[in-house]
Design brief:
4 helices, 5 strands, alpha+beta, about 140 residues
Length: about 140
């Protein structure tokens, strides 16, 4: 396979919505199918950048970078990282992560946060290789109906 190319999604198309939805199926046990309109809303948001990884012209991975301003400064967060099974082990996730870090830096963020479940051993090794450090914290979640 060829070179990994990372692009920030700029236009919501039916093909991109299908690719994102397909990747969502590998990311979540309750995957979300995005319509073109939903994808457009995500792409047009000031707070998010949807990064798409292409290998030989085919979309094989994605990552969402969220940046936001709070009173203590600009913060950045990486969410929804997934690489298609056929492209895993080829450095795609590392390329996506590095591209997201550079975008966060350009946006003025001092740090980039992400979470990863402990059982995702390969992902956790990747994040350490990319320069992330484990931070002692407790994550809380409240499910909204």
């Amino acid at each position: 396979m060829g070179e990994v190319v990372i692009e920030v999604a700029g236009e919501a198309t039916e093909q991109l919505a299908e690719a994102v939805s397909s990747l969502n199926r590998q990311l979540s046990s309750r995957p979300r199918v995005l319509s073109v309109a939903e994808l457009a809303k995500l792409i047009e948001s000031e707070a998010t950048r949807l990064l798409i990884a292409y290998l030989d012209g085919a979309p094989v991975g994605m990552l969402t970078l969220v940046t936001y301003a709070i009173p203590t400064g600009v913060r950045a967060r990486i969410e929804d990282v997934v690489v298609d099974e056929v492209a895993r082990g080829r450095g795609v996730a590392l390329e996506l992560t590095n591209a997201a870090v550079e975008l966060a830096r350009a946006a003025g963020a001092r740090t980039v946060d992400l979470t990863s479940r402990p059982e995702r051993e390969a992902a956790n090794r990747l994040y350490r290789r990319a320069g992330f450090e484990v931070r002692e914290s407790v994550t809380y979640r409240r499910t909204l109906d």
